[in-house]
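Q: My labmate handed me this sequence with no annotations at all. I'd like to see what the chain might look like in three dimensions before we decide whether it's worth expressing. Could you predict it?
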Amino acid sequence: MASKRLLKKDVNYVMGDIIDAAYIHQMANPKEDPAKSEAIVDEAIKDYDELITKINNRDVENKQKHFKEVQVDLEKKANALIEKLNAL
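A: Here is what I predict for the chain of 88 residues:
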């Protein structure tokens, strides 16, 4: 079972890496519109807040199942953001 602490670290690392990649893309391509990469950063921050809120939810009967659902949600959101980042 994934612990709450490790799940929070995973969310932090994954979303942080996506934000870093967006800023690196922005610096590597200064002639492109920075609004596109800023939108990805904003979405990553919004998703981060949503995932942390789900992790901290105490009204859960089965914590193991809940944490697995959060992990799957993290993967889906991260993959969607990476696809958007790769499309830039």
